[in-house]
Write a structure and sequence with these properties.
heterodimer, A: mainly alpha, 7 helices, about 70% helix, globular, B: mainly alpha, about 90% helix, rod-shaped
Chain lengths: ~325, ~170
């Protein structure tokens, strides 16, 4: 018996769902040629609001304010302390060694915003909000309508990660022009090669300039899609076993698949942090490559993350 | 087969314009809010705390150095006071010894003087007593002799008898 015949598509938990507009919107009667509002957009809005609220709360705790006494210098609350530690680590150990003093001060707000925004999007995707709405709608209320209006991981949408990569590309290039000037930028594009190699070097370097942010977008998107697909697949094993083998199959296979899903959830939590960090960190590296002092370190930066500590602080 | 059909319907790589534009706008707004309301506050908080910690450490180091200097000066003063006290004790001791020596010498001198004086007095008394004893002996001898002789002797006889007796006496003593 082919159990796959009884399965749903695990991608159903990953791909975006149209709420308003598009071919098959959740809200009937709003069909249009292009989707106007999707589930990932709503998730991203929620993530953005959470990010702003979280960071404003943390800022009020970390900020010293205008009071008197030593108390005002203390960060109160475990969560704020945790965020402060993350910020300090990012500044001192990750960004400062790569960008140097001046560029760290200039780009730290952007890079940290990028990191926390992606992180909140990734973590929000781990909360089964969509499934809760399905359970509420179909299971409890008994409605036949599609009940999920928000949920899913915004960063598992290629359009979202591509837009973030475009922002990074713009920031990198604006910095490159400011730092190197048009002449320096063109010289950087030639990669210091002799003139007769320019017909090869220019397209290669130009493509590299575009591929770097594209790789950022695809890496984040692929990691999120893969993780959530795996989670969905593990969760579907139970359903497949029940359909194919009955209650015994559900108990036996379901138990193992739940254990595996829990373990993968922890891995996904780690991946959520890791991918947010990598997106932010590689953006910092690409910015640093477009700075004067890093033109000679091209290769070292691209070889691996472990190399950065060995580079002198600037 | 079913899965493949479903997979065709669900394309995770599909890129729609609306989510991308929304991302640009939403991330732009998030940046705007965080850049104006959050990061300046956090940066100033961290910087102020860093400055405060540095200031506190410097103040603590200065206080420590001050305390060390005060302790050293106090120890120096204590050493000086101890030396002075030792000196005073030594001086008092030598003064006491000198004074006791002087008193002892004075007492010994007085004692010697008293002893000398007493010796002289004893000698004078002894001589007086001997003279008196001589005189009394002469009188007594005269009286005895008179009684023996049953006669009166005149003063000249008496004197010559006394003198004889005395000479004999002195001769016997020497």
């Amino acid at each position: 018996m082919n159990l796959l015949a009884f399965s749903d598509n695990p991608l159903g938990h990953v791909v975006d769902v149209q709420i308003i507009g598009g071919d098959n919107p959740v809200i009937p009667g709003t069909e249009s040629s292009v989707p106007l509002l999707t589930m990932h957009m709503v998730s991203m809005l929620i993530a953005a609001m959470l990010t702003v609220w979280m960071m404003m709360t943390v800022a009020s705790k970390i900020g010293t304010g205008k009071g008197s006494g030593n108390e005002r210098y203390l960060t109160t609350g475990r969560f704020s302390q945790m965020i402060e530690v993350i910020i300090l680590y990012m500044r001192e150990k990750a960004i400062h060694p790569v960008l140097g003093e001046a560029n760290t001060n200039r780009f730290l707000p952007f890079l940290l915003t990028l990191f926390f925004f992606i992180l909140v999007c990734n973590i929000l995707g781990l909360v089964p909000l969509m499934d809760m709405q399905h359970v509420l709608g179909h299971g409890i209320i008994g409605s036949e309508m599609q009940w999920a209006f928000f949920g899913g991981t915004a960063t598992s949408n290629l359009a979202v990660t591509a837009a973030l990569a475009i922002i990074c590309f713009v920031v990198i290039q604006v910095h490159a022009f400011r730092e190197l000037g048009v002449k320096g930028w063109l010289a950087h594009l030639s990669g210091g090669a002799p003139l007769y190699l320019l017909p090869i070097m220019l397209p290669v370097e130009f493509m590299g300039m575009l591929i770097k942010p594209s790789a950022l977008a695809i890496r984040l998107f692929a990691n999120m899609v893969a993780g959530h697909t795996l989670m969905a697949m593990l969760a579907l094993f139970g359903k497949m076993a029940f359909a194919g083998l009955g209650t015994g199959g559900l108990i036996g296979i379901g138990f193992v698949s739940i254990l595996a899903a829990v373990a993968i959830s922890f891995l996904e939590l780690f991946v959520a942090f890791l991918q947010a960090f990598i997106f932010m960190f590689l953006t910092a590296v690409f910015i640093s490559q477009m700075s004067h002092h890093h033109e000679d370190h091209h290769e070292e930066f691209e070889e691996g993350l472990t190399e950065y500590d060995e580079l002198p602080a600037h | 087969m079913v899965s493949m059909m479903l997979a065709e319907a669900l394309n995770p790589v599909a890129v729609e314009l609306a989510p991308a534009i929304t991302t640009l706008i939403v991330f732009g707004i998030v940046c705007l809010i965080l850049f104006t309301k959050v990061w300046p506050k956090i940066a100033s908080g961290l910087d102020e705390r860093q400055a405060k910690i540095r200031q506190e450490i410097e103040a603590a180091e200065a206080a420590q150095a001050e305390a060390r200097a005060a302790m050293e000066s106090q120890q120096a003063e204590l050493g000086q006071a101890r030396a002075e006290a030792q000196e005073m004790i030594a001086k008092a001791k030598s003064d006491a010894e000198a004074s006791s020596r002087a008193l002892r010498e004075q007492a010994q001198a007085q004692l010697a003087e008293l002893r000398e004086q007493a010796g002289q007095e004893i000698r004078a008394a002894k001589e007086a007593a001997i003279s008196e004893l001589h005189a009394e002996s002469a009188v007594l001898a005269t009286a005895i002799a008179s009684r023996i002789l049953q006669r009166e002797i005149n003063a000249d006889d008496q004197q010559s008898l006394i003198d004889d007796s005395l000479r004999e006496l002195q001769g016997s003593r020497s």
